[in-house]
Design brief:
Layout: H1 2-6, H2 8-17, E1 19-24, H3 30-40, E2 44-49, H4 56-61, E3 64-66, E4 86-88, H5 93-97, E5 102-107, H6 114-126, E6 130-138, E7 143-146, H7 147-151, H8 155-159, H9 203-210, E8 214-218, H10 224-237, E9 243-249, H11 255-267, E10 274-279, H12 292-302, E11 311-314, H13 321-327, E12 336-337, H14 341-356, H15 365-380
Parallel strand pairs: 1-6, 2-5, 5-6, 8-9, 9-10, 10-11, 11-12
Antiparallel strand pairs: 1-7, 3-4
Length: 388
C-alpha cells in the first residue's frame, strides 16, 4: 500500500486540516509506521491517551495540578484525606519550545466529548506549530478524515435553505446567499461571516448587467442620506424596476417610523412602485414556526405610525405567518409575506434540476409550473399549520 510506504497523503491532509480523526486497524502497527514517517519529515511527535484529559489546553500547554491516582482519597499522613496534589509540567511544552512542528497522536479518542474535541480544534487554531491526530475507533483498514467533520453532527446543513453546506467539507460559496441561519446552530462556532462590499460607483454598472425586475434596499434608522445615494445609483443604472422593496428593522423608540417617513419623502420623485418591508427579526434567527410571531408583533405595534404604501412582512416569516396574521385579524393589513428561506427550501429540488439543465428555473416550463404550485401551497396546506 503506498500509504504505508510514504505517508505522503496522510501528511498532506494533516498539514491542510491541522487535526485529523483516525480509524486504525485493531491489530496495530499503522500508528507506528505513520509516526515514523512524520518524524522523518521533521515533525516532533508525542503519544498520549485521551482518557483523563480534562481541560485539553491546561493539560497540554499549561502548568496544572494533579492528584496521583494511586493515592485516591486515602489519608497520606499530612492531615488531609483528599490525596496529595502535585504540579505537572505541560506535556507539549518542551516539544513546542524546540521550534519544530509538533504532532500529538492521541489514543482512545472515542472517550472525548464534543466539547473536548472542539477544544482540541481551537487549540490547533491558536498554536500554528501544533497538529493533532485523534484515534476515534477501529477499522478494517486505516482511514482518516478532518477532526472537525468527526466532531460535529453538522446541524447547520439541516437549516440551510440553498443546501450550501454538504455532509463533508466547507460551505459552498457559490450557493450561499448569506442568510445566516447556520450561525446560531453551529455547536463548534466554526462558521464565520464574510462581508462583500461593493463600491458605490460600481453599482450602476452591475445593475445594468443583471437587469433585475425588483430590488430590496436594507436600511436602518439614521441612514436616510445613504438611502438617497442608493436611489441615485439605481436611477443612473436605467433599469426598469417593477418593484422596490424598502426593508427596515425595529429601532429604539419611534426611530423606525420616523426614518420611514423620511424615506417616503425621498421616494416621491421615483418612477418605480415601492413597498415597506417590516423585518421582525434577523434571518439568522429564522428557524422554526414560532419565529413568525416577531414580524406579526412588529406590525401590531407600528401599523398606525407608518407612511402610506403597501406593507410586507419579513424576518422570521415562514409557513405559519398567514395563520398568525388571521388569528390577530391582520390578514388584510399586509400586501404580502416574504417567505424567503421557507420558500427556497420548498423548491430547492426544482432549482437543482434546472441548474443541472444549465437553465434558470423560469426557463423550464415543467419545473416552473411545479414550483408555482408548491409556493402556493404555503397558503393552503393544512399540515403546515401549527398551534404554536
Amino acid at each position: 500500500m503506498p500509504l504505508l510506504l510514504t505517508g505522503r497523503a496522510f501528511r498532506r491532509d494533516l498539514e491542510r486540516e491541522r487535526a485529523l480523526a483516525v480509524y486504525a486497524p485493531l491489530e496495530g502497527g499503522a500508528e507506528t509506521r505513520l509516526l515514523r514517517r512524520l518524524r522523518a519529515a521533521g515533525y516532533r511527535t508525542e503519544l498520549t491517551s485521551a482518557r483523563g484529559l480534562g481541560d485539553p489546553e491546561a493539560f497540554l500547554l499549561g502548568l496544572h495540578g494533579v492528584r496521583p491516582p494511586h493515592l485516591g482519597h486515602h489519608c497520606v499522613g499530612r492531615d488531609a484525606a483528599v490525596g496529595e496534589v502535585q504540579l505537572v509540567m505541560p506535556q507539549l511544552g518542551p516539544a513546542l519550545a524546540s521550534g519544530a512542528p509538533v504532532v500529538l497522536w492521541m489514543l482512545e479518542g472515542q472517550v472525548l466529548s464534543s466539547a473536548e474535541q472542539a477544544s482540541l480544534l481551537a487549540l490547533c487554531e491558536r498554536e500554528p506549530r501544533l497538529h493533532m491526530v485523534v484515534e476515534l475507533g477501529g477499522s478494517r483498514s486505516l482511514r482518516w478524515k478532518p477532526l472537525r467533520a468527526a466532531a460535529c453532527p453538522r446541524p447547520c446543513a439541516k437549516v440551510c435553505p440553498p443546501l450550501a453546506i454538504p455532509a463533508q467539507g466547507p460551505v459552498l460559496a457559490e450557493r450561499c446567499y448569506g442568510c445566516g441561519r447556520c450561525l446560531p446552530v453551529c455547536p463548534l462556532g466554526l462558521i464565520e461571516e464574510r462581508s462583500m462590499a461593493l463600491a458605490p460607483q460600481a453599482l450602476p454598472a452591475l445593475l445594468r448587467q443583471l437587469q433585475p425586475d425588483a430590488i430590496e434596499l436594507h436600511t436602518h434608522p439614521g441612514r436616510a442620506s445613504d438611502f438617497a445615494e442608493r436611489l441615485q445609483q439605481i436611477e443612473l443604472s436605467g433599469v426598469a424596476l417593477q418593484l422596490l422593496s424598502v426593508s427596515c428593522p425595529e429601532g429604539p423608540g419611534d426611530a423606525m417610523p420616523h426614518h420611514l417617513w423620511q424615506l417616503h419623502q425621498l421616494l416621491q420623485g421615483c418612477r418605480w412602485p415601492w413597498l415597506w418591508q417590516l423585518d421582525g427579526r434577523p434571518m439568522s434567527g429564522d428557524i422554526g414556526a414560532g419565529t413568525a410571531q416577531a414580524a406579526v408583533n412588529l406590525l401590531q405595534r407600528r401599523r398606525g405610525q407608518l407612511p402610506p404604501g403597501p406593507l410586507q412582512l419579513a424576518g422570521g416569516t415562514n409557513h405559519d405567518s398567514r395563520r398568525r396574521l388571521e388569528r390577530e385579524g391582520l390578514a388584510d393589513a399586509v400586501a404580502g409575506i416574504a417567505y424567503g428561506g421557507s420558500a427556497r427550501k420548498l423548491i430547492q429540488p426544482l432549482l437543482q434540476q434546472a441548474q443541472a439543465r444549465g437553465q434558470a428555473l423560469r426557463a423550464c416550463p415543467d419545473l416552473w409550473g411545479q414550483a408555482l404550485g408548491q409556493l402556493q401551497s404555503l397558503f393552503c396546506r393544512p399540515e403546515l399549520v401549527r398551534n404554536c
